[in-house]
Backbone:
């Protein structure tokens, strides 16, 4: 029964890893940018939700938090436009190292800004205990914390709407076209700049949702940024870097491994659970570098 | 050196073409620099000496990292490698003299570096960033694991000394200067050897390099070994300078600073001057931020705890600005100045 509970917990935690991986994968798929700043986007999201829900616009704590998430996401759209316009656009067509380092710079700026604005004190969301009660939610014999209900719902919503957008709409079609061949897409009248901007927007919103959940689990500190990076990279890599569906599957798998193998090993080597994602990352890189659903790159000289 | 020579620069003999210093001016400049650095302890306060030692330490790490990045082997585990050097030194320093511990620390870090670098044969470009990120956290965790029984995880290093004679600030300064000079001399020459040329080829396209006869396994392993050795030596110097080391001294963020500010802002491919400029940038920004926060805190009390955050913002802005305005790094500014004087008075 403990094992069953661990599996359910792992899958529940995996949904949010999947959302972070989605944020990462999307940027990579469309813009061919390796977004190292994903952890810092998650961190910024957590703090923004904290700030906006701290305004206390609505009485009810649950709605207040959701409103905070929505307001933070709207703010995130503005930041996404800024990111694309001022940091990324000057570098299109440049070497991969430049693009990576630019996301590093973005991450440093975002993280630095949160530290300057909110300091390094551990914070919790307003109404944390009403929204996420310490008593776990029970389904039959299994107990899972309330946070994971949010995580599952949020992941379902964002993932479903994203997949619909990506697979069924004209906008998603344009997005896929740009990801295949930006220049050919541009000749067919698709505005690459707009597509890139929208991509960053979706990535920010997904990261902010992850920020809500990770912030609720761990409390809001700088640590969230490292946790985010540590979960998003392996999850994205397991699924293959350019497959949104694979990102979700990778997240679920990572959550499962972390909560079963990690918890099991932790009994023998205390503290090893913290680096389980990295060990998974190394193993995946060595065994199957292009992941489960990733495009295998064929190199020609 | 030798790779791309601007129009108007003429060499009359093969010896002149291959010479390490291209112009008499370079002898003068190097001589002057050495003279200033040697005389500095008698003129400047200790604060500046410490800053220069830190620049030397970071500079050595960045030299190794620069070589690695030139081959497009991106590594973000160099802070952890410094940590390995520092901890090796701290554990050995009670028994062994410094001239043994520093190389041993370097070799230790080189071994770890090669171990985590070997996947680079199979995984390419930015995938290597992921594997070295993992390496950084795993090494950090192992260091924490080793020191778990020590209160505060702090390991003390015996002070620098030889045959029972304790080194003062002055001796330490000259020793570090000497080590840095040797390391810089070596890395500058590596750029001229087949190894350095192979690095550039691997960086361009490693399959193509392989077809041209570059043994990828050998050269990638050597690159990681050299880079790790440099980081280990720097970590060892760090350990002697501070007198104690904890795993928190070598965080993930520092690796990014080394790669981002050190290599990219300094100048990729400019092994000596680029690395030193990048290192200067790191130290200067750190010091300026600290000063700024101390000055501004009375007026803006909320700033007090956030020197760390302000520093990250500055680093981010500097990296972004360099990438947009001067993608070749600060070293290319030096190159431009040189070119201007090469072609003077007809600089077009």
Residues:
């Amino acid at each position: 029964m403990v094992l069953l509970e661990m599996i359910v917990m792992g899958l529940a935690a995996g949904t949010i890893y999947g959302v972070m991986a989605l944020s990462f994968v999307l940027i990579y798929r469309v813009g061919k940018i390796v977004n190292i700043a994903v952890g810092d986007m998650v961190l910024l999201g957590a703090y923004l939700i904290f700030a906006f829900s701290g305004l206390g616009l609505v009485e009810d704590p649950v709605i207040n938090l959701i409103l905070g998430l929505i307001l933070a996401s709207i703010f995130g759209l503005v930041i996404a436009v800024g990111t694309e316009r001022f940091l990324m656009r000057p570098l299109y067509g440049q070497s991969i190292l430049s693009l990576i380092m630019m996301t590093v710079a973005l991450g440093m700026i975002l993280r630095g800004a949160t530290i300057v604005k909110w300091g390094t004190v551990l914070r919790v969301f307003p109404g944390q205990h009403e929204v996420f009660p310490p008593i776990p939610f029970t389904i039959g014999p299994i107990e899972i914390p309330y946070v994971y209900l949010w995580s599952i719902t949020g992941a379902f919503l964002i993932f479903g709407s994203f997949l619909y957008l990506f697979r069924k709409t004209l906008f998603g079609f344009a997005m896929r076209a740009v990801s295949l061949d930006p220049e050919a897409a541009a000749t067919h009248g698709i505005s690459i700049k707009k597509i890139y901007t929208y991509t960053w927007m979706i990535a920010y919103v997904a990261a902010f949702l992850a920020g809500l959940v990770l912030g609720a689990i761990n409390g809001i500190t700088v640590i969230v940024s490292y946790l985010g990076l540590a979960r998003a990279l392996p999850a994205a890599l397991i699924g293959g870097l350019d497959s949104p569906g694979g990102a979700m599957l990778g997240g679920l798998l990572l959550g499962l491994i972390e909560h079963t193998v990690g918890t099991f090993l932790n009994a023998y080597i205390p503290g090893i659970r913290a680096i389980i994602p990295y060990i998974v990352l190394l193993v995946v890189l060595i065994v199957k570098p292009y992941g489960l659903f990733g495009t295998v790159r064929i190199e020609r000289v | 050196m030798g790779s791309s020579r601007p129009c108007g620069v003429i060499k009359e003999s093969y010896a002149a073409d291959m010479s390490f210093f291209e112009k008499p001016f370079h002898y003068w400049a190097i001589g002057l620099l050495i003279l200033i650095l040697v005389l500095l302890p008698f003129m400047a306060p200790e604060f500046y000496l410490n800053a220069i030692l830190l620049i030397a330490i970071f500079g050595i790490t960045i030299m190794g990292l620069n070589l690695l990045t030139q081959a497009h082997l991106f590594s973000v585990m160099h802070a952890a490698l410094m940590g390995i050097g520092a901890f090796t030194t701290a554990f050995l320093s009670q028994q062994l003299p410094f001239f043994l511990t520093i190389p041993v620390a370097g070799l230790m870090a080189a071994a770890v570096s090669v171990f985590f670098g070997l996947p680079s044969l199979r995984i390419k470009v930015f995938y290597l960033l992921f594997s070295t990120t993992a390496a950084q956290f795993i090494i950090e965790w192992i260091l924490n694991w080793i020191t778990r029984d020590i209160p505060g995880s702090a390991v003390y290093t015996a002070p620098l000394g030889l045959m029972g004679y304790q080194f003062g600030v002055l001796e330490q300064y000259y020793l570090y200067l000497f080590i840095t000079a040797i390391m810089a001399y070596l890395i500058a020459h590596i750029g001229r050897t087949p190894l350095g040329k192979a690095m550039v080829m691997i960086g361009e396209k490693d399959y193509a390099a392989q077809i041209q006869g570059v043994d990828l396994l050998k050269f990638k392993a050597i690159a990681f070994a050299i880079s790790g050795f440099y980081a280990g030596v720097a970590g060892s110097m760090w350990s002697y300078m501070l007198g104690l080391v904890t795993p928190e001294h070598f965080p993930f963020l520092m690796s990014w600073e080394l790669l981002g500010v050190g290599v990219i802002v300094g100048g990729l491919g400019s092994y000596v001057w680029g690395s030193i400029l990048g290192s200067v940038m790191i130290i200067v920004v750190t010091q300026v931020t600290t000063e700024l926060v101390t000055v501004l805190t009375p007026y803006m009390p909320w700033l007090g705890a956030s020197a760390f955050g302000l520093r990250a913002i500055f680093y981010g802005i500097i990296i972004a600005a360099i990438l947009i305005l001067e993608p070749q790094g600060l070293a290319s500014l030096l190159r431009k100045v040189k070119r201007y004087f090469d072609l003077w008075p007809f600089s077009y």
Summary: The mean pLDDT of chain A is 87.
